[in-house]
Amino acid sequence: MNDAEVSASAPTKTIKVIHTYLPLLLLCAIAVTQMIAAQVTSLTPWKGGGFGMFSTIDSTRARFVVVRLRTDKGPIVAEIPASLSYLLRKARATASRAELSRLAKRLASLPWRHAPEEFPSNDDPAAGLQPEKPPRHAVAVMRGDAPYPESERIDANAVEVGLLRYRFDPTTNELTSEPLLAVEIPVAAARKGKGGSP
User: Fold this and answer.
1) Is residue 163 a part of any domain in this protein?
2) N vs C: which end of the chain shows fewer Cβ within 10 Å?
3) Residue 27: inside a domain, yes or no?
4) pLDDT tens digits, residue range 164-190?
């Protein structure tokens, strides 16, 4: 083999090595980055390009958000409006205080009312199976909603948003929930930052 043939085959050999090892190195780098993110930042192992989904139930579907309005009469559980589903999904996936605070600030800037009571009619055969009236909860008042009585309005002082996740306890074989994060945002501060009351 002469010098010209050796120098011509060197780039080909280098390209073969790159084609062989580059994908492997990229996959390893992604997996290591995702493992670190899942441990350090509470990113769910199901997200971020990792392979943790095969070893844990900690997916976004196993994380849930609970919203409570703090009022002078006590806390009231509140529904998250569908229009905030993107913020909700982000908060569940990343479990970061910043994302949970973004969701809480948006919720605190909304006006709230008691949800309409829904009880079974007297001619419903299942009506007797409900021993007590379920507690009322709150819904956000969105643009285009029908008018409601002033007595249904909720004057919240703050909005508390908690992120929880399901955990499987192998000793008891039970699914339990554990808190990951919680933030509380004063309503007055959230509405002030939005430019006034809605």
Assistant:
1) yes
2) N
3) yes
4) 888 878 888 888 888 989 999 999 877
Q: What are phi and psi of 134, to 5 degrees?
A: -70, 150
CA gap 49, 52 in Å, rounded: 9
The DSSP 8-state label assigned to residue 24 in this structure reads H
Query: For the whole model, what pTM was predicted?
Result: 0.63
**4-25 pLDDT per residue, tens:** 555 555 678 888 878 888 888 8
- Sheet of strand 153-154, all strands in order from the earlier edge strand to the far edge: 153-154, 112-114, 138-140, 74-78, 63-71, 158-169, 174-186
Residues 112 and 156 in one domain: yes
Domain ranges, residue 23: 3-40
Task: Tell me, yes or no, whether 123 lies in a domain.
Answer: no
User: Does some domain include residue 127?
Assistant: no
Domain count within the chain? 2
Number of H helices, E strands in the chain: 4, 7
